[in-house]
Each structure stands twice: as C-alpha cells, then as structure tokens.
C-alpha cells in the first residue's frame, strides 16, 4: 500500500520553493501528499530559524507526534531547513545534534542533500518497496524539477548559501557557502515555466544580487572574470517577455551589492517591477558594524536616493532587527528617525533573539531585556502603520495592474506592480489573471480597488 507524507513549511520564499522540490522527490518515490498531519506516514518540517518562534513552533508539535506514534509505529518524522546542520538518520553513528536532542525525530537533512533522501528513507523503512529512481535530474538539488504550487507564479532559486556572516544569522552555517546556479539552467527553468503559462517569476537567493560573485563562483569557468553576472541573468530572463513573461522580481538583496548598473537595469528592463526589498537591519552605524553588515546608514541613504531618482515611484521594503546586543535607546532612536525619514512602504521588523552557533551567540551579550525589545518593536510598528497608510493613500485614484492570487466569497486578492496587496469585489474567480483596477482606498496594509 502506498504511503503518504505531510509537509509543513515555515519561513521565507526560499523554503517554500525548496518544499516544491521535496514534493518532486517524495512523489517520485510513490508517496502521496496529504494535508492532514494525522494521516501521514512521513511528517516533514521545512524549518526557519530566523526567529525563535519558528523553532518553538516545530518543537512544540513533538508531543503530539509521540501520541501519533503509539497508533502508527511506522511513522517517520524528518526536519530540513535552517534548523539542520547535518544530514543524518537516527541510525547513523554520528547523528545531527538535533537528532540527539529530539527523541521523536528520525532524520534530518540539509536541503542541498535532498538527493540523499530516497536512500535515507529506504534505510528507515526497510519493509517498504520504493520504485527505483532512474532520472538523472533527481541527483542534483538544483536540477530537481519542482512541483510548482501555482501555474501562473513561480519562485526560482538562483543560488544557495551566503558568505556574508552577519553576526546574528544562521544561514551561512545551515546553508553553508554561497554558490550560484548555472545561468543556462536557471534560464531553462524559467523558459519551461513561461511555456506553461507562468507570468510572474521571482528569482530567489539569500543574497540574490551577488549572484555569480562568491568565492566558490569565482573558481568556476562560467563566472570567472565575468562582470555583473546578475544583470546578465536578469537580461536573459527578461527576454522571455516575447513568450509571455510579464513580471520579474528578485529577493533578497544586500545593500553592499546594489550597484548603479543594477539600478539602471531595473529601470531599463521591461519585466522588472518597480519594487525592491532592501534590508537595512538598523539605522545606527555602530550597530550595523556589530552586525557585520558592511555598509553605513549614509551609503544606504544614497542607494534609496538613486533608486527613487532612477525609478520614480518605486516601492521599497526593508527588514529591521530591534534590541540587538548592546542597542541603546539612542541607537534605537536612530533607527526610528531613519524610518521617519525614508518612509519605507513596508518593513518586516523583529525582536532580536540569539541563534545558536552564530558569532553573536558566541561573542556578544544578548543584554536587552525582553520588555525593552517588545516596546521598541511596538513603537516601530505604530510608525510603520502610519507610514504604510500614507504610502498606500498615494495610490488612491490611480490605475494599477494586479495579478490575482486568490478568490474567496466574492472577493479577489492579488498584488500590484509595486507589490501592494490589492483586494476587490468580483462575481467571478479571476485567479491567475492580470486585471486593471482603479484604487478606491489606500488602507494601512492594502489597497481596495474596483475593476475598470
Ligand atoms: S546576508 Fe546576512 S542576513 Fe542575509 S542570509 Fe547572508 S548572513 Fe544571513
């Protein structure tokens, strides 16, 4: 009898994209996907460690799993994503520390080791007969064709890992060194998507705008000595407009790698949308240094000026961490004042919590009390509400083009070119279509429109 799997994905778009590749491998093994954790033979968590909450959410479900196992002794539990350092099963002599710590776990795998999952599963389920996987394209993580969840929108990874070692971040340890995917392979995947009706592609990477520039990339024939490989890639993918690509986006960016040429390319290439996510993390130079961010507040300001001059009306969002090690009230106020000055369209702000194994964990003191972090978060959130509202009101009366992503109870929801969430009433389900709307109202977090 065929066995089933349940997958729970947390965190960023990269994780959601990875889960589409996991679906491919598991379904090639003859497993069927279920939306019910209670019915699954394999429960898989694709985890995020950016915040403590993400880890707690996964570990908090383990008690439930102990109870499930009483009824289903064959049940397997696996974890991948940022919480994992090592690929292993509980049968290995040197398991991942997570396997030692969490009794309910059977296997952990780094996402790059996804091709090893079939052999790990057959070791843990010796009684189950797996179909033999012969496709060569299941042997390399990047070459695994994902089972896309949407037919009109897709996330395409262009690299993995990160060399930046921001002192608070776990990614360089969990995903290891930055390595870019071959350009022709990315193009092939995008071409295939567009041929199948996809109109919006988002290129993904931990540091997307340093594509092709890492130490590992420099050693390859493809990227050695190449100038601005990311722009070359964007130009290449943009050429798919003749086959139906309408929108191209990319995330996440590092300010230190945002060149003038890239800003010009954003203005020049037809499919690139007038929106950019550009994390600042703090508005104080000393804190930025402590975070090892490698830019200053002034250099960030300059980038915003250039972006707004070259791409008038561009929407910009950011990430901010409050309460990082040693952050004084005055240093926090630098962030607050910068927020008032720049007026980002959206900000994803978080209260700092230590990630085990990072530089900050080992060398800096997490000395800001929880209540202080919470208070700073709330003050920033109040400011964001009014800034975002003000920015959204600027759209009132304007026409926007929206790619509809869902339809519930007579209401469609999608995103505009500027990545604003737009809702509107409709008698029919327009999911997957690009529609023109007039914006009637700019709310705090979204726009309300009507069909023109
Ligand atoms: S740039 Fe910094 S925050 Fe982003 S993934 Fe790399 S190390 Fe983490």
Protein described:
This protein has 452 residues and is α/β, with parallel strands linked by helices. The chain has 4 domains: 4-138, Rossmann fold (3-Layer(aba) Sandwich); 148-273, Transcription Regulator spoIIAA (2-Layer Sandwich), CATH 3.30.750.210; 278-283 and 302-394, Transcription Regulator spoIIAA (2-Layer Sandwich); 399-451, Beta Barrel (OB fold (Dihydrolipoamide Acetyltransferase, E2P)). 33% of the residues lie in helices and 21% in strands. The strands form 5 sheets. A 6-stranded mixed beta sheet has the order 2-1-3-4-6-5, sandwiched between helices. The protein has a 5-stranded mixed barrel with strand order 15-16-17-19-18. Strands 7-10-11 form a 3-stranded parallel beta sheet, sandwiched between helices. Strand 1, helix 1 (13-28) and strand 2 form a beta-alpha-beta unit. Helix 13 runs parallel beside helix 15. The longest helix is centred in the last third of the chain and has 24 residues, at 370-393. The radius of gyration is 23 Å and the shape is globular. Iron/sulfur cluster (SF4) binds at residues 162, 164-166, 169, 171-172, 206-207, 254.
Summarize the structure.
With about 450 residues, the protein is an alpha/beta fold.
CATH class of the largest domain: Alpha Beta
The largest beta-sheet arranges its strands as 2-1-3-4-6-5
Rg on CA atoms, Å: 23 Å
What proportion of the residues form beta strands (DSSP E)? Answer: 15-25%
* CATH fold category name of the largest domain: Rossmann fold
How many strand elements?
19
- Uncertain residue ranges: none
Summarize the biggest pleated sheet.
Answer: 6 strands, mixed
Number of helices: 15
Q: Architecture of the largest domain in CATH?
A: 3-Layer(aba) Sandwich
CATH superfamily membership of the largest domain, which one? Methylthiotransferase, N-terminal domain
Look at the helices and sheets and give the structural class: alpha/beta
Helix content: 25-40%
Distance between the termini: 53 Å
Shape: globular
Query: How many structural domains can be distinguished in the coordinates?
Result: 4
The kinds of small molecule bound in this structure are: iron/sulfur cluster
Mean pLDDT: 93
């Amino acid at each position: 009898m065929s066995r089933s799997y349940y997958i729970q994905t947390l965190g960023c778009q990269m994780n959601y994209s990875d889960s589409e590749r996991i679906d491919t491998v598991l379904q090639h093994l003859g497993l069927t996907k279920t939306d019910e954790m209670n019915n699954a033979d394999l429960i898989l968590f694709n985890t995020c460690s950016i915040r403590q909450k993400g880890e707690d959410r996964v570990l908090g479900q383990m008690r439930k799993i102990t109870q499930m196992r009483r009824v289903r002794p064959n049940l397997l539990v696996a974890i991948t994503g940022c919480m994992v350092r090592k690929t292993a099963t509980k049968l290995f002599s040197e398991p991942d520390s997570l396997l030692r710590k969490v009794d309910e776990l059977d296997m952990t795998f780094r996402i790059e080791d996804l091709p090893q999952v079939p052999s790990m599963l057959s070791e843990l389920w010796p009684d189950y007969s797996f179909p033999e996987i012969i496709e060569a394209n299941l042997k390399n993580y990047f070459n695994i064709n994902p089972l896309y969840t949407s037919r009109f929108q897709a996330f395409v990874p262009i690299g993995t890992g990160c060399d930046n070692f921001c002192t608070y971040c776990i990614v360089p340890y969990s995903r290891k060194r930055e390595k870019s995917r071959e350009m022709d392979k990315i193009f092939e995947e995008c071409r295939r998507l567009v041929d199948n009706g996809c109109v919006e592609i988002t290129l993904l990477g931990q540091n997307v705008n340093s594509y092709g520039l890492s130490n590992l990339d420099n050693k390859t024939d493809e990227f050695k000595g190449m100038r601005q490989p990311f722009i070359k890639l964007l130009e290449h993918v943009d050429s798919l407009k003749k086959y139906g690509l309408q929108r191209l986006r990319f995330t996440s960016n590092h300010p230190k790698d945002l060149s003038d040429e890239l800003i010009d390319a954003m203005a020049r290439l037809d499919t690139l949308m007038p929106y950019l996510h550009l994390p600042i993390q703090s508005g104080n130079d000393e804190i930025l240094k402590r975070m090892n961010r490698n830019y200053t507040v002034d250099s960030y300001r300059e980038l915003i000026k250039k972006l707004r001059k070259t791409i008038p009306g561009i929407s910009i969002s950011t990430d901010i961490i409050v309460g990082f090690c040693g952050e004084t009230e005055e240093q926090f106020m630098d962030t607050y004042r910068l927020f008032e000055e720049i007026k980002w369209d959206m900000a994803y702000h978080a209260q700092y919590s230590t990630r085990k194994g990072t530089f900050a964990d080992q060398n800096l003191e997490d000395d800001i009390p929880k209540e202080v972090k919470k208070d700073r978060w709330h003050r920033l959130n109040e400011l964001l509400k009014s800034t975002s509202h003000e920015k959204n009101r600027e759209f009132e009366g304007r026409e926007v083009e929206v790619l509809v992503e869902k339809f519930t109870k007579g209401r469609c929801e999608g995103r505009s070119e500027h990545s604003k969430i737009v809702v509107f009433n409709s008698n029919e389900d327009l999911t997957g279509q690009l529609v023109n709307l007039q914006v009637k109202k700019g709310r705090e977090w979204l726009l309300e429109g009507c069909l023109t």
